Amino acid sequence: MLTPVLDDAVESLTGNAGVIALWKEDLKKFVETVTYGLDSDGVKRVSALLKTVIPDLASRKNSYDRLSHLIPAQHFSMLEVRWMFDPVIAMPFWAGNNVRGVICVLRSPASNPFNSVDQRVLSAFVSQTVMLIDNDLLTSQLAEERYKVESIVEHSADGIMTIDSERRILSFNTSMERLTGWSRSEAIGNYCFHVLKLTDRHGDDLCQGKCPVVTGVSGLYSQRGAIVARDSKKIDVDMGYSLLSGSGGFPSTVVVNVRDISALRQIEDMRSLLLAGVSHELQTPISIIKAYASTLARTDVEWSPQILREKLNAIEEESDRLSELVTKLLYTSQLETGSIPLNRMLVHLPKEAGKVAKRLAGETEIHKLEVDFPPDFPGIYADPEKITEVLNNLVDNAIKFSPSGGTVTIRGEVLEEEVRVTVADEGIGISLRDQARLFERFSRVGDVRARSVPGMGLGLYICKTIIETHEGRICAEGVPGKGSKFIFTLPISASG
Ligand code: ADP
Q1: Mean pLDDT across the chain
Q2: Is the pTM of this model over 0.85?
Q3: How sure is the predictor about 67, in pLDDT bands with cuts at 50, 70 and 90?
Q4: Residue 459 reports pLDDT greater than 70
Q5: How far apart are CA 433 and CA 480, in angstroms?
Q6: For residue 446, what pLDDT band results from cuts at 50, 70 and 90?
């Protein structure tokens, strides 16, 4: 970029050689950037000149004359350049008070010295040089800014794309690729309504009816919906549109921000599930308790001791159900806020399983409960209360989801480094698809709701957390209509 300026400067000043050197602040010296009429030997000599003399020379406002006149003798004697070039004219250029560079033109020895006219001519070339350097600086600053903006857009966690007024995609960042499954090259040039297929909760097409480019909304606009990814997966998203107006007020480019809010939606759904579940689950026992209590409170009826006991038993049962429910809710909220503390000690699982079976057998007449552990079953280090909670939940479910009775078995096995406990029933079973979701919070699968089996879908979530806190695993097996198996393992060596 500076070469033509130097060429012109040397020719205009009838010089034989020239150099433009830029000041390197970190090196504290001039470094030749462009040279004219110098072979490698000449460049070496000029380089020596730049290091020692030119800074002095350049800082003088009257910077023209023979080197021998300007430079102190002891300095000058060191300069080999005088054998090649002398006179020299050099003129520095500045940015505020800081020197940015120097331009110098050299004539062969015995040529005429430079004069004040030459100095004015050189100053014109200096202005040109400064202008070119400023332009170059501006261009590289712009490129750097552009690079920064592009990097921010590219690495944004949100999907960002730009579309034109015809809704054709102009740019598509990495998050968009991840979110939609469309690669950038496939998406660019395509219509955004083909790529995103935005619909509302009822499945109505938002791209046709509500797109701000179509409806002509200007400025900022946002809407929620669901997009359909390449693999047909629906993703809940928040769409933000920023419409940049072109001439005539029509949007020329639209920046579209796509945020995946599936997790947020899940929390919202879960919250409404929780509210609905809790209200329903609390309502039933409360209504029963109230009905029995107000019946018993009637003064116009004399209750027989047997009816009295029956109704009081029912009140007690429903109160237990309420208390169990509240315990599960408290447990869940405790699990949400951090890991559960374990009070580990040596636990004899066959004994705990026996106690659970005995207690729950008392609550059912149509189920048979069996406990089957080998005699050499080892003790394990675990929290007995929490393991009993797991067994309770599993056996309770086995009974609850075997409406026509059958056998519920708690079986223990000893493996190499762990023990395995299976709770098996002969009840309604679980489909393969449902097995994956069973252990999530508020997950109730199959047609349990239709069968109006009480429960909130928290028991298995609690079991899973307890078992995993003990470094064990839990899973479910089963075939619809043919019973289920819940299997958990616990490490034998687990110690507190
Ligand atoms: P809840 O029993 O309170 O609904 P759980 O987390 O204990 O909650 O169980 C979640 C769901 O798993 C149940 O609603 C039911 O659909 C299914 N489930 C659990 N245990 C069994 C089982 N033994 N047989 C069939 N389905 C079961």
Answers
A1: 85
A2: no
A3: low
A4: yes
A5: 11
A6: low
Residue 466 CA to ligand 1 center (angstroms) comes to 17
Is the confidence at residue 454, as pLDDT, over 90? Answer: no
Strands 251-260 and 98-106 turn out to be: unpaired
Q: Per-residue pLDDT for 193 more than 80?
A: yes
**Model pLDDT for residues 287-336, shown as the tens digit of each residue:** 989 999 999 988 888 888 998 999 999 999 899 889 888 888 888 888 77
CA of 415 to the centre of ligand 1 (A): 27
How many CA atoms are closer than 13 Å to the CA of 266, on its beta-carbon side?
10
- CA torsion through residues 359, 365, 366, 368, sign: positive
Which atom of ligand 1 sits closest to the CA of residue 462?
6
Calculate how far, in angstroms, residue 457's C-alpha sits from the geometric centre of ligand 1.
7
Assess contact for 19 and 46: CB atoms under 8 A: yes
Angle between helices 459-469 and 305-337 (to 10 degrees): 50
C-alpha 424 – ligand 1 centre gap (Å): 13
Cβ of residue 35 lying under 6 Å from some atom of ligand 1: no
Ligand 1: which atom is nearest the Cα of residue 328?
Answer: 3
Q: CA–CA separation, 371 vs 358, rounded Å?
A: 10
Does pLDDT of 495 surpass 50? no
Our answer on whether the CB atom of 455 is closer than 6 Å to any ligand 1 atom is yes
Q: What is the DSSP annotation of 124-136?
A: HHHHHHHHHHHHH
* Best residue among 460, 461, 466, 484 to mutate for probing ligand 1, ranked by most atoms within 8 Å of CB: 460
User: Is residue 159 within 8 Å of 257, Cβ to Cβ?
Assistant: yes
- Distance in angstroms (rounded) separating the CA atoms of residues 335 and 440: 13
Please give the distance, rounded to the nearest whole angstrom, from the Cα atom of residue 56 to the centre of ligand 1: 90
Give whole-number Cα distances, 288 to 281, 314, 315, in Å. 12, 8, 7
CA 235 to chain centre: 15
How far apart CA 256 and CA 166 sit, in angstroms, is: 14
Question: Taking residues 350-367, what's their average pLDDT?
Answer: 93
Would you state the structure tokens that stand for residue 175, as one six-digit string?
């998050």
Q: For residue range 166-182, what is the model confidence (pLDDT) as tens digits?
A: 999 999 999 999 999 99
Average pLDDT (475-492) is 93
CA atoms within 13 A on the CB side of 51: 11
Express each pLDDT in 274-291 by its tens digit: 777 778 778 888 998 999
Specify the long-range contacts of residues 319-328, CB closer than 8 Å, at least 24 apart: 319/285, 319/289, 321/285, 321/454, 322/282, 322/285, 322/286, 322/289, 325/278, 325/281, 325/282, 325/285, 325/456, 328/456, 328/458, 328/459, 328/462
